[in-house]
Hints:
single chain; mainly alpha; 17 helices; 77% helix; 0% strand
Amino acid sequence: MYASLSVLALFVFFYSIASGGLEKTPTSGAIVFTAFGLIFGPLGFAVIAGRMEIEMLRTLAELTLAILLFADAANANLAVLKRNIGIPGRLLLIGLPLTILLGYAFGILLFDQLTLFEIALLATMLAPTDAALGKAVVTNENVPANIREGLNVESGLNDGICVPILFIIIALIAGDASQENTSLLALTLVAEEIGIGVVVGVGLTFCGYHLLHFCTQRNWVTESWQQLPVVTMALACFSVAQWLGGSGFIASFVGGLLFGAIAKAHKHKLLVAAEGTGDTLALITWVVFGALVVGQSIELFSWHIIFYSILSLTVIRMLPVFVVLTGQKLRTDEKLFIGWFGPRGLASIVFALIVLQEQLPGGKTLAMTVACTVILSIVAHGLTANKFIALLVARIKLDKK
Length: 401
């Protein structure tokens, strides 16, 4: 344990003091973290050894995602989003279902050892995009604001929308839902997940912010404790919504949107601790993912899995996006840009861990397909982010001349 802790602590130290320089290179943090886990995990030097329970890893990934969603939503530009609501609206309401259906169709062609329900699970697990892995794009002010805000909102809400779909399919596999009550179950789950998530996110954030403002005006918040309120607000939104049967991810994102709207000029100072905490937890999550998930299961990869992963990041994602954005006054290269930057990450990992807990016959194949897709996404999107942004900006400047 102490060997693992020593190596991890030193890695966090060195990365934290060199992160600014690394951000200027094509190498993303997730690439470095996962590679570190692979090198020092069982597949490499075996310094980071042992086993982490699925439930513990799932909790770590969920809490990390909740904090990142809250912080990313709080940094959103609501004025720009309001003017360009059609982009995320189409991506979520039309593009997301089309992505799942296209992923299901390709899954039938490639995975004859999986049942139809398991293939539906796979398509759903890989449909949501990752807010953290897309940070290089959505925080780069050189990228047009409508594209940035559209991608940010899409990645913030699509995982919460996919949660009820995932549990409906799991219920069908387990036999807990018959064909007669499937529609009712679907409507109930969607209403609960979204409705409770929105109510909890709005209610807790509204009360939490005004309490924080009240105490800050009276100098009751000491310097040593002022880093915690926003972090705990994000965690409370997630955990209370989950406890009540709603989507913690939607609660975190909606709470972050509201916090950004009412905190206004003070939000950046208040969000520093939340962003730092989220980045640190993400670092640990990716290291554990590389060491204890990928490192111990890499031999299960097959050409079917690799091929489907490539399709998931390209055709399955990009074709629906290109189609649904028709009529949004976007150039072809802008639609392709939005379609390409749909990285898969923490949300898909959380879904894979949920499926592993169900111990389905094809559960390991599903999990390894998700893992392969996430690894390819980390590398491909990390290496292309800065280059593709530069190309897009150059095209925009050229059109203006």
